[in-house]
């Protein structure tokens, strides 16, 4: 009887340790990819300020409407309106996207304008590319802030 008790106790211990070992991995949320469509407009003369709106959609079904604010400084001059798309690196949750990203940007145009940005915030990266209209040229370093609308 004593021998049976210790065997059952050993089996329960192994099962308990196995469940405890597997639980943290099961609690970790799956990564998902997100994209954003956006519209921004603004001006620049050494200092660049663009504001706009966007729609984010993630592969896991999460969606959000956002407000965008971009402020940067560099060799830049002009005024334009841009519509484009953005691709985020994988995230665990849509809420990880909100906040300020460091941005390196280049833009150019004479009636038809193009804009490209590479942004990062810790482990999360964002690449924006857009087209629009305006007269502008420049390269800047600054920040893009994404907030829920």
Give your account of this protein's structure:
With 149 residues, this protein is α+β, with helices and mostly antiparallel strands. It has a single domain, classed as Beta Barrel (Lipocalin). 17% of the residues lie in helices and 66% in strands. The chain has one helix at 2-27, and strands spanning 34-58, 63-88, 99-121, 124-148.
What are the defining features of this structure?
alpha+beta, 149 residues, Lipocalin, 66% strand, four-stranded antiparallel β-sheet, 1 helix, elongated
Query: Which stretches are low in confidence, meaning pLDDT under 50 for 5 or more residues running?
Result: 8-26
Termini distance? Answer: 67 Å
Number of strands: 4
Which strand-content bin applies to the residues?
A: over 45%
Order of helices and strands: HEEEE
Short summary:
The protein has 149 residues and is of the alpha+beta class.
Explain the layout of strands and helices.
Elements: H1 2-27, E1 34-58, E2 63-88, E3 99-121, E4 124-148
Antiparallel strand pairs: 1-2, 2-4, 3-4
């Amino acid at each position: 009887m004593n021998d049976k008790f210790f065997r059952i106790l050993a089996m329960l211990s192994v099962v308990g340790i196995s469940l405890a070992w597997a639980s943290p991995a099961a609690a970790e949320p799956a990564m998902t990819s997100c994209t954003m469509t956006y519209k921004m407009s603004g001006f620049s003369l050494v200092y660049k300020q663009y504001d706009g709106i966007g729609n984010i959609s993630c592969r896991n079904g999460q969606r959000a409407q956002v407000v965008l604010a971009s402020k940067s400084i560099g060799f830049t001059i002009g005024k334009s309106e841009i519509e484009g798309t953005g691709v985020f690196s994988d995230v665990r949750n849509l809420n990880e996207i909100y906040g300020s990203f460091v941005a390196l940007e280049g833009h150019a145009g004479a009636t038809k304008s193009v804009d490209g940005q590479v942004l990062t915030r810790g482990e999360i990266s964002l690449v924006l590319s857009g087209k629009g209209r305006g007269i502008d040229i420049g390269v800047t370093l600054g920040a893009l802030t994404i907030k829920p609308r």
